[in-house]
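Each field is set out underneath.
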Amino acid sequence: MFEIVFLGTSASAPSAKRGLSAQIVKHDEFRFLIDCGEGTQRQILQSGLGFRNLNNIFVTHGHLDHILGLAGLLSTFMRWETIAELNIYSGKWALDRIHDLLYGVVLRGGQAPLTLNLCEIKPGIFFEAGDFTVTAFPVFHRGSDSLGFKFEERSRRPFLPDKAEALGVPFGPIRHDLVDGKTVMLEDGRKVGPEEVLGPLKPGVRLVYVGDAGRIDDLVPVCQDADALVIESTYLEEEAEMARQFSHLTAKMAAELAVKANVRQLVLTHLSRRYREKDVLAEAQAVFPAVQVARDFDSYSFKQEG
């Protein structure tokens, strides 16, 4: 299961009710901050999440509304000694700007009292844990080497408790061994293999996050059959030409991507202050009904079907 908590859902500049781009993706003990607009650290506190385990930050691109909050966040980490290591992942263009911000302003050429790693990433898997991976993929957006991120659980065979009960498999470590693919021996000497208590292989949950984007045709393959697509919706179709000019999407375009990629759920963020939320939602729902517009501090969980 993946959970995403929205900390900032406004485009370019904050509004009274929406902060700048930032969200936390959670999976078990892992927590990843995606983008860090101005004011993000306060939003983290307001959300009640706090800074624990927030060691990994993924930055979609280096525009200021997505990175300025890193200065305040690092400053807080230095004062509170909250974490020992901070890893910031992004493309080279973004990392160059982040380096200038952190080392030229916050640290002023000095060293942080924690391990600070600026990690350049290319398209492909760049973060891997026991049961999930995170993949970066290119996104078209003006003047930046923008990236999107795909969180994907590994495929697995679900444990079938009814079959285990019928075979007399007791609760405890022996069931974990079967889930891990091991053959076990029961107290009466019978052997039970994993194929006897595991169902057919099922794909894990797939969550795709796209920040600022100017086109959708190149995003269809990476979004294909995703359980959830989180993506920007800065404009309405009535200003499609302005969206094209500034390399952003309309709500209709985001919904069209969801249809073409056959995603299960669409969540829109990065909204311009010029529009009403209900109008953004209506435009997208006319194309793709399973859509929601995120607000600051909204939380969505995505689980495996069945």
Summary: The chain has two domains: 2-156+202-302, 161-196. The longest strand covers residues 2-8.
